[in-house]
Amino acid sequence: SFSLTLIDALDTLLILGNVSEFQRVVNVLQEGVDFDIDVNASVFETNIRVVGGLLSAHLLSKKAGVEVEAGWPCSGPLLRMAEEAARKLLPAFQTPTGMPYGTVNLLHGVNPGETPVTCTAGIGTFIVEFATLSHLTGDPVFEDVARKALKALWKNRSDIGLVGNHIDVVTAKWVAQDAGIGAGVDSYFEYLVKGAILLQDEELMSMFLEYNKAIKNYTKFDDWYLWVQMYKGTVSMPVFQSLEAYWPGLQSLIGDVDNAMRTFLNYYTVWKQFGGLPEFYNIPQGYTVDKREGYPLRPELIESAMYLYRATRDPTLLELGRDAVESIEKISKVDCGFATIKDLRDHRLDNRMESFFLAETVKYLYLLFDLDNFIHNDGSAFDVVITPYGECILNAGGYVFNTEAHPIDPAALHCCRKRKEEQWEVEDLMREFYSLKKTKKFTLKRLSDHGEGESAKTPEDASSEKGGEKRNSKKSSHSLLSCPSQSFNSKLAVLGQVFLDNT
């Protein structure tokens, strides 16, 4: 658990400017973290905290002055740790639906008696970390399982376009049918948007936009979002959960700033009422819910304030930041840290401090006020890195935060393809062009010997498939610069002019 806290708070040190402490912790972690232990671990939490934290620290290491090995960012000790941790989670995805179990034993895999019931967020919160890992390591398995889980949830949405809270990952039957944007569902929606931005993926964004329509139609009331029955759309819980406060920030990422501000101001009134956000807030009664009066210093409302301030420069958002700093300092500060507030009604404290306070709350507060932080880079500055696979641009901004506030540099995803598919295509075309220029002989390859849409293979291709790297894209049998098979009369051309059969 000590290593977990170190990993979870590591990039916070750099963002706050404590470079020497970042370097010291990286050195400690490089000595090795043992994942071969007989421990049952949350698949969701291990991914967002350990895998996400290690990936972020790996990508920020050079900026922090840490000596990196040759081949970085495509190799490095923190990246290898992230990959090892993620591989420990892969057995959880071996289900009939592709949706993962909620818990896995790091040494033995999924326990025989493991419950098949997992919350929606625990299924749909992998694409940011796993796609990053696949792009950096060249192993597609991580992105593949994350995408399969996302699509399984999409396939099993209700007829009115909503998803429930918990589902059986073996049978795909919904166990908890409450639909909303809060606990148990939240980061699924977040990762559709952030995955779409990180990967420039239209399919993921279109999924979210369809969900967004259903959410507005069935759960939104006067800029509050309630919980409803996923098949009928009838209200089941008229409550606001503190975890839902991420939603205005997510709305700002898709450009829906006006709606985001109205919802944010609703949530801010609750903050001002109590000096923090209670875990549950009864909207009709305007007060806390019994046994849900606590505030564990969650970051979601501050996170939304940071995103919205970047979009609007509205000073109201800075007022929230000021209130948050003053409230946390006054209410929760103790000799050795900042304690969870057990009850916001009388500000009693609990004897614990969550790691997300350091990983998220402090980070988002700092970034709300630090306008010149490198995280906010607008692309006017960047670093050029030479990798074994060519020149690479990094640290140009546009960071995508995972749900534990670990920033991922999207540019890094383009650094580590061993031989880009496009590069292979261009090289093949140029080689053929110069070969033809020398011999001035044109050959017509028989297409009937190959499957539909499949290009004829050269001896070089065949030898490459046997002992070397494959040149084809893993996502499609078509190479990126070639077209699917066309009818024969479209293929006869001289100097760009097409001659059809009836010409």
Automatic annotation (TrEMBL):
EC number: 3.2.1.-
Database matches in Gene3D superfamilies: 1.50.10.10
InterPro entries in UniProt: 6hp_glycosidase-like_sf, EDEM1/2/3, Glyco_hydro_47, Seven-hairpin_glycosidases
Top EC class of this enzyme: hydrolase
Pfam family, one: Glyco_hydro_47
Residues annotated to bind Ca(2+): T403
Annotated SUPFAM superfamilies: Seven-hairpin glycosidases
Region feature Disordered, mapped onto this chain: 448-484
Active-site residues, record numbering mapped to chain: E45, D186, E279, E300
A single Gene Ontology CC term: membrane
Alphabetical UniProt keywords: Calcium, Endoplasmic reticulum, Glycoprotein, Glycosidase, Hydrolase, Metal-binding, Unfolded protein response
Reported cofactor(s): Ca(2+)
GO BP terms: carbohydrate metabolic process; endoplasmic reticulum mannose trimming; positive regulation of retrograde protein transport, ER to cytosol; response to unfolded protein
Basic and acidic residues compositional bias, start-end: 448-471
Cellular location(s): Endoplasmic reticulum
GO molecular function: calcium ion binding; mannosyl-oligosaccharide 1,2-alpha-mannosidase activity
Known function: Involved in the endoplasmic reticulum-associated degradation (ERAD) pathway that targets misfolded glycoproteins for degradation in an N-glycan-dependent manner. May initiate ERAD by promoting the first mannose trimming step of ERAD substrates, from Man9GlcNAc2 to Man8GlcNAc2. Seems to recognize and bind to exposed hydrophobic regions in target proteins.
Family, as annotated: Belongs to the glycosyl hydrolase 47 family.
Descriptive protein name: alpha-1,2-Mannosidase
Species whose genome carries this gene: Sula dactylatra
Gene: Edem2
